[in-house]
Structure formats: C-alpha cells, structure tokens
Amino acid sequence: MIVVKVGGSAGIDYDAVCADIAVRWKTGERLILVHGGSGETNRVAEALGHPPKFVTSPSGYTSRFTDRQTLEIFEMVYCGKMNKGIVERLQRLGVNAVGLSGLDGRIFEGRHKDSVRAVENGKVKVLRGDHTGTVERVNTHLIDLLLAGGYLPVLTPPASSYDGVAINVDGDRAAAALAVALKADALLLLSNVPGLLRAYPDESSLIREIPAADVETYLEFAQDRMKKKVLGAAEAVQGGVKRVIFGDARNGQPVSAALGGQGTVVS
C-alpha cells in the first residue's frame, strides 16, 4: 500500500502524476491519492473578493485562517475543481477513480478549533470564527470497500469534526494519518521542489536522506508549508510507516522517481 500526497502549489504536473499512478495501478499496485489545492484556492478567493488570510502560530507554523466563507471557497476548489479534475484525468487513463473529501463518510475526523493563536506585529492574538482542526481519527471502512471493489480513492480535505462540522485540515498530516491507519509501506509527499532543501530555494542543497529517529531535528531547514510536511513525515514514521519520501511533482514520473529514491528519503 502506497499513499501519495500531491500538493496544490504552482508548477505541479498533475498529468504526469496521474499518468504514473495509472501505470502502477494497472500492474496491481495498491495506491491512494490525497491532494491539495492551495494555489487555485488563493486565485479563486481573490477573484470572489474574499482574499486568503494566512496566520503564523507562536511556534512558527503558517496556516490558512478559515472563516465560514473561506471554508465554502475551499470546498468549492478542493472538493470540486481539483478533486474532479484529478478523477477525470485518471478515468481517461483507464483507472476507475472515486473522489471523496475527508468529510464524506467521516474518513478524516478531528476536533474543531474555532479559535487560533496568531502572531501579528510581534504580538500574540486570538482569532475567533476559525474552521480548522487536525486529523485525530481515520475511518478506513469506506476506503477498504473502495479498494476491495477495484476503485482508486482520491481524497482531499476538509475533514469532519466529531460534531459533523467541516474543518480545514492540513493535507500532508492527513495523508500521514491515513498512511499510519492503513499500515502503508510508503508515504510520498510530492510538491514543487525536489525535496527538503538545506538552503531553500537552492535546489542543489537537497537533503537526500534523513534517519527516521531524527526527522524533527530537520525542521530548521523547512520553510513555510514544508514545515507541515516534515511534521507529517515525523508522525508517519512514528506511527510505523516504513518510508516517507519528499519528491518532485513537476515533471517526469513523479511517483516512480520518488519510490526509486529521488528526493529526500526518511527511513
């Protein structure tokens, strides 16, 4: 079992990702695809007159502040345009893919945080009206049914709170939780960089290997959203996933390349 998470930033080649997955799926490999959509969500939010707001926590993690209107835009893009665009690509390649959000069947569940602590102008403020959370539980029954029926699941945030409220969750950490729950052999975190870079954005500074026991010590090299990927990798290996690979989704055969060791391998 391989869980593939592909990000939503500029430059990602979804055609290449889907083509590579289709080839591997047809050989009998079991895969699940989780995707993001941050870049397109930002564009649509701007066009709709409700531009995105990003906040940085006191511990240095950046996330999207998700009020109710932002959540609706988020769902429109992630569950609609991005998810169905990927499903269509796979269907055209002969893969019977099914697109679902973590809200469907409560695949991803967690606690709803309606307030968030954020650093603004050097001061810590509490912002209320947030619709975010962290995946604390993965309900695999629906996933197992799809896989047993020969369908390739294509998953995306949001998740469900324990009260059934849609919550924005980090896709990389959701994919890590999924990989742990399914006892996956590998988790691939594909984005628009070749892996974790020691001196971002210098791509020649790629860190090729990270010992599983030392993942969190490499957080100092992670910039912006890469911090969540490193955190997700740490959670995955702590949960028993054998390998986590940060790979490049911009061209070629991204899944096969990452499984072949191209990128940053955590093991």
UniProtKB/TrEMBL annotation:
<feature type="site" description="Transition state stabilizer">
    <location>
        <position position="5"/>
    </location>
</feature>
<dbReference type="InterPro" id="IPR001057">
    <property type="entry name" value="Glu/AcGlu_kinase"/>
</dbReference>
<dbReference type="InterPro" id="IPR001048">
    <property type="entry name" value="Asp/Glu/Uridylate_kinase"/>
</dbReference>
<keyword id="KW-0067">ATP-binding</keyword>
<feature type="domain" description="Aspartate/glutamate/uridylate kinase">
    <location>
        <begin position="1"/>
        <end position="246"/>
    </location>
</feature>
<dbReference type="InterPro" id="IPR037529">
    <property type="entry name" value="LysZ"/>
</dbReference>
<keyword id="KW-0547">Nucleotide-binding</keyword>
<comment type="pathway">
    <text>Amino-acid biosynthesis; L-lysine biosynthesis via AAA pathway; L-lysine from L-alpha-aminoadipate (Thermus route): step 2/5.</text>
</comment>
<keyword id="KW-0028">Amino-acid biosynthesis</keyword>
<feature type="site" description="Transition state stabilizer">
    <location>
        <position position="229"/>
    </location>
</feature>
<keyword id="KW-0963">Cytoplasm</keyword>
<comment type="function">
    <text>Catalyzes the phosphorylation of LysW-gamma-alpha-aminoadipate.</text>
</comment>
<protein>
    <recommendedName>
        <fullName>[LysW]-aminoadipate kinase</fullName>
        <ecNumber>2.7.2.17</ecNumber>
    </recommendedName>
</protein>
<feature type="binding site">
    <location>
        <position position="64"/>
    </location>
    <ligand>
        <name>substrate</name>
    </ligand>
</feature>
<keyword id="KW-0457">Lysine biosynthesis</keyword>
<comment type="similarity">
    <text>Belongs to the acetylglutamate kinase family. LysZ subfamily.</text>
</comment>
<feature type="binding site">
    <location>
        <position position="168"/>
    </location>
    <ligand>
        <name>substrate</name>
    </ligand>
</feature>
<keyword id="KW-0808">Transferase</keyword>
<dbReference type="InterPro" id="IPR004662">
    <property type="entry name" value="AcgluKinase_fam"/>
</dbReference>
<dbReference type="InterPro" id="IPR036393">
    <property type="entry name" value="AceGlu_kinase-like_sf"/>
</dbReference>
<keyword id="KW-0418">Kinase</keyword>
<dbReference type="Pfam" id="PF00696">
    <property type="entry name" value="AA_kinase"/>
</dbReference>
